[in-house]
Design goal:
By secondary structure, this protein is an alpha+beta fold. About 50% of the residues lie in helices and about 25% in strands.
Length: about 220
């Protein structure tokens, strides 16, 4: 394998495993998901192009790692899919996941690995196609973000429009753990308020301290 192909494959596994790894630690990634997913897809497509026309048999280690790529890339696919309500992200991640499948299935030998990859793919995709249509029912919009005095925490005021089913307003508190211009690693959302749909329009929200959020004169203690 050439040096460039090695670099592409390393980038492929790193890009596909990054979000699942962060989520397994109980955190989440805030970023521009269209750009992020486009980068993941570009790396995956590049890896496929590098693979085309090459007939050499993969080693057992490479075959096993490519089989592992299916569940890892699937987790990355699902996390991105449900992180934002975006048709663009959905399309891009289908391309990304499809490219990873091509890589895993492009094995000139080890039929057991091929069949395992195909079966695993089918089992993983069935629930996605069942639940994917429900993703586009309604709309979730972050209407306001309020930072705590130190900036370590911030509150998100969210409007959840569920169409004919109505909707609701919610306030979640999030802790910033790692912040860069492109990616922020944050804690999972801690819901502190749940109310009627549209209530956010008249909501008075501010921080009393890093451990106390005030919503409409009511104080909510934050778990630090």
């Amino acid at each position: 394998m050439s040096a460039l192909r090695k670099i592409i494959y390393i980038l492929l596994y790193v890009s596909e495993a990054f979000l699942p790894a962060v989520n397994l630690t109980g955190n989440r990634v805030d970023t521009n998901y269209v750009i992020y997913c486009s980068i993941c897809a570009a790396i995956a497509v590049s890896a496929v192009i590098m693979r085309q026309g090459r007939k050499e048999k993969k080693s057992k280690i490479k075959s096993a790692s490519d089989l592992l790529l299916i569940p890892v890339s699937f987790l990355n696919f699902v996390i991105c899919l449900f992180a934002v309500d975006s048709v663009a992200v959905t399309v891009i991640m289908f391309v990304c996941f499809g490219s990873c499948l091509i890589i895993s299935l492009s094995n000139s030998g080890y039929k057991a690995v091929k069949y395992s990859s195909a079966v695993l793919t089918i089992l993983l995709l069935i629930p996605v196609f069942i639940f994917l249509p429900f993703k586009f029912f309604g709309k979730t919009t972050v209407v306001l973000t309020v930072a705590s005095p130190s900036g370590k925490y911030y509150a998100e005021v969210t409007d959840i429009d569920q169409g004919a089913l109505g909707g609701h307003s919610a306030v979640d508190v999030i802790e910033r753990k790692i912040s860069t211009p492109f990616i922020t690693v944050s804690s999972v959302k801690q819901e502190v308020y749940y109310g009627p749909w549209g209530l956010f329009k008249d909501m008075d929200i501010h921080w009393k301290s890093d451990s106390c959020l005030v919503i409409n004169s009511a104080e909510y203690d934050i778990d630090n």
